[in-house]
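G., the chain you wanted modeled:
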Amino acid sequence: MSAIQTALEGYQPLIGTEVGVSNWYTVDQKMIHEFAETTIDTQWIHVDPERAAKETPFGGAIAHGFLTLSLASRMAYDCFEMLPGQAMGINYGFEKLRFLSPVLAGSRVRGRFELKDVKLRSETELLRTNILTIDIEGQEKPALVAEWLGLAIFASDG
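Predicted structure as tokens:
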């Protein structure tokens, strides 16, 4: 049996289950400022904590939604290793994405991954769809929920 077929058969029973929980990561004001500069998105609700405390319902500066989302890559590294025979993994995009709660500066977040689907896309590509939920420590409502697609690329058997 090929490595990709073994991986597919190993994943199929896991559909509908939580397959990984990442470490917690602190989203501090320094990280928010650096992200703002990198993305040229310096809106005051992110970079001016005093003004954000006075003029928003959040009580302070909040992380960019895309900053929170960008941490998903690190969270995935915490949860998933390369599979036997896998040459690389590629971010294939999102089917759905919703930002549900703001992440206040100083908050800790983590990712939880539930396998929604897995299928062969080609002889060397395994397409996995995970429901990613990014939790905010101490809050019931998550920061975001997304359907994240990833390709596991396997070496050709030929």
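Strands lie at 18-21, 25-27, 86-99, 107-120, 125-136, 144-154.

Shout if anything looks off.
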